[in-house]
């Protein structure tokens, strides 16, 4: 399917993304609501110039440092993430020594299993989320399900495209949250300790690249990278870019 898009097409990346999401729906890993989320994301990406803006690159470096500092980092995977960046998520998990956990807004056993299998097909050795033996307080039964030795136990969680309610509930649990979301005005990035306003297609490989670059850094150096990151400034810079098309004040 991916080969149908000519590489020199000016909308190559965008068309490829749509194909992957469509394929995700056909494979039973992406929900139909995931198609709507994709459309919303594309609109914001268009306004961002479909590029990693400097403030997003800084957020990605801070995210890498925060993940390397974690006692127990968990990368949350939903249907859109699995469809778009399955191998890249496995690579990031390997680079920082994190767990992968499937976490769905509309949870069904079939989709949970299909996503876990898809990640294994892309090189994952272990995928959490199927045990569902713990609950995030403040969320309805189905939506609050997580693994006791996964997200529930984590100190740092990467939640790409997380829904606002769950992002807030995870923050209330005391997790240090890294959110990847193209809409800087959405509640999820607003809640995050480190909001990454970038397409997950670009964000995940770039966090991995930063993690590799920081692999030999001391804890003090990593902490300095995290402390230097200004979440408010990053959210403002992204919103400014979207509203005015400029990167400056
Ligand atoms: P809330 O304010 O409760 O979070 P919402 O309107 O953001 O609500 P969601 O279902 O969370 O509703 O929307 C999906 C989010 O995912 C949107 O903000 C969209 O911009 C973002 N998104 C979609 N595709 C991508 C992508 N490829 N990379 C990064 N973010 C994406
Ligand atoms: Mg949101």
What general outline do the C-alpha atoms trace?
globular
Instruction: Give the biggest beta sheet.
Output: 5 strands, parallel
Uncertain spans, ≥5 residues at pLDDT below 50? none
- Can you give the mean pLDDT? 95
Strand order of the largest sheet: 2-1-5-6-7
**Helical amount:** 40-55%
Q: If helices are DSSP runs of H or I spanning 4 or more residues, what is the number of helices? A: 11
Radius of gyration: 17 Å
Could you state the order of secondary-structure elements as H and E?
Answer: HHHEHHEHEEEHEHEHHH
Terminal Cα span:
42 Å
Strand content: 5-15%
The count of DSSP E runs of length 2 or more, i.e. the number of strands, is 7
* Small-molecule components bound: adenosine-5'-triphosphate, magnesium ion
Structural class: alpha/beta
Oligomer: single chain
In short:
The chain is built from 11 helices and 7 strands. It is α/β, with parallel strands linked by helices.
Q: How do the helices and strands line up, and which of them pair or pack?
A:
Elements: H1 12-27, H2 32-47, H3 54-69, E1 73-77, H4 79-84, H5 86-96, E2 99-102, H6 109-121, E3 134-135, E4 145-146, E5 156-160, H7 164-172, E6 176-180, H8 187-191, E7 194-196, H9 200-213, H10 219-228, H11 231-244
Parallel strand pairs: 1-2, 1-5, 5-6, 6-7
Antiparallel strand pairs: 3-4
The chain binds adenosine-5'-triphosphate (ATP) and magnesium ion.
Can you put this structure into words, describing what you see?
By secondary structure, the chain is of the alpha/beta class. Helix content is 52%, strand content 10%. The model has no long low-confidence stretch (mean pLDDT 95). α3 crosses α9 (200-213), α3 (54-69) runs antiparallel to α11 and α5 (86-96) packs parallel to α9 (200-213). It has helices at 12-27, 32-47, 54-69, 79-84, 86-96, 109-121, 164-172, 187-191, 200-213, 219-228, 231-244; strands at 73-77, 99-102, 134-135, 145-146, 156-160, 176-180, 194-196. Bound molecules: adenosine-5'-triphosphate and magnesium ion. Adenosine-5'-triphosphate binds at residues 37-38, 40-41, 44, 80, 84, 161, 163-164, 180-183, 186-188, 199-200.
């Amino acid at each position: 399917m991916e080969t149908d898009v000519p590489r020199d097409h000016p909308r190559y990346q965008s068309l490829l993304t749509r194909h992957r999401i469509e394929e995700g729906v056909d494979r039973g890993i992406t929900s139909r609501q995931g198609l709507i989320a994709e459309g919303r994301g594309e609109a914001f990406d268009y306004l961002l110039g479909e590029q990693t803006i400097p403030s997003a690159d800084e957020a990605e470096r801070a995210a890498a440092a925060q993940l390397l500092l974690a006692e127990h980092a968990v990368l949350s995977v939903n249907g859109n993430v699995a469809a778009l960046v399955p191998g890249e998520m496995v690579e990031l998990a390997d680079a920082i020594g994190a767990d992968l956990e499937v976490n769905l807004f509309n949870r069904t056993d079939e989709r949970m299993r299909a996503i876990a299998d898809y990640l294994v097909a892309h090189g994952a050795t272990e995928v959490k989320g199927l045990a569902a033996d713990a609950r995030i307080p403040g969320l309805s039964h189905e939506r609050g399900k997580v693994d006791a030795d996964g997200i529930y136990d984590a100190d740092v969680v990467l939640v790409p495209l997380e829904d606002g309610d769950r992002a807030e509930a995870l923050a209330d649990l005391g997790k240090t949250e890294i959110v990847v979301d193209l809409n800087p005005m959405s509640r999820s990035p607003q809640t995050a300790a480190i909001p990454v306003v970038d397409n997950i297609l670009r964000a995940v490989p770039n966090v991995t690249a930063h993690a590799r670059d920081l692999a030999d850094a001391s804890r003090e150096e990593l902490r300095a990278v995290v402390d230097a990151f200004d979440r408010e400034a990053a959210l403002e810079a992204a919103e400014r870019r979207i509203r005015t098309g400029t990167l400056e004040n």
